[in-house]
């Protein structure tokens, strides 16, 4: 496997694991602050990020590359509000989209068309993840910063988490 592509994929393996830990951390914050539905939604999201990581691990192995796990940054543990949590989810997903686009560029430079084809799944996934994060932020804005509004928002997220089976990445 091309060494630049392999290095980029290994970097993304770590980034997906970091995303998972960040969402676990957010879920724990929500749990602690009484947002049970938001916690469930974010725990589910954290599991999805692990699936994204595992899919990459399998791909690198299948192509004869070497998976190199690395140390991870400490995820943030504190937020000022539920709005701050979900604002960060969207910002984080936009960052991940940029990362996937960068790997795609490396594949194009290195003429690794198989990997660019494999990455289409992640590109589509990022469209869905950004859209979902925007949708949650819209709900939160509509709910306003009132106890009743936030109660209904959290109930909606509980329903969303229950409805979303974790997408198999393999
Ligand atoms: Fe694996 Fe949310 O991107």
Write a structural description.
- With about 170 residues, the protein is mainly alpha-helical.
- It has a single domain (about 5-165), classed as Up-down Bundle (Ferritin).
- About 80% of the residues lie in helices and about 0% in strands.
- It is built from five helices and no strands.
- Helix 1 packs antiparallel against helix 2 (about 35-60), helix 1 (about 5-30) runs antiparallel to helix 3 (about 80-110) and helix 2 (about 35-60) runs parallel beside helix 5 (about 145-165).
- The radius of gyration is 17 Å and the shape is elongated.
- The two termini are about 20 Å apart.
- The mean pLDDT is about 95.
- The structure holds MU-OXO-diiron (FEO).
Name given to the CATH homologous superfamily:
Ferritin, core subunit, four-helix bundle
CATH architecture: Up-down Bundle
Backbone CA Rg: 17 Å
SSE series: HHHHH
| Major sheet attributes | none
Number of domains: 1
Structural class call reads mainly alpha
What is the averaged pLDDT score? 95
| Distinct small molecules | MU-OXO-diiron
Q: How would you sum up the global shape?
A: elongated
Q: Stretches where pLDDT falls below 50 for ≥5 residues?
A: none
- Measure the end-to-end span: 20 Å
Per DSSP, what share of the residues sits in E-state strands of 2 or more residues? under 5%
Number of helices: 5
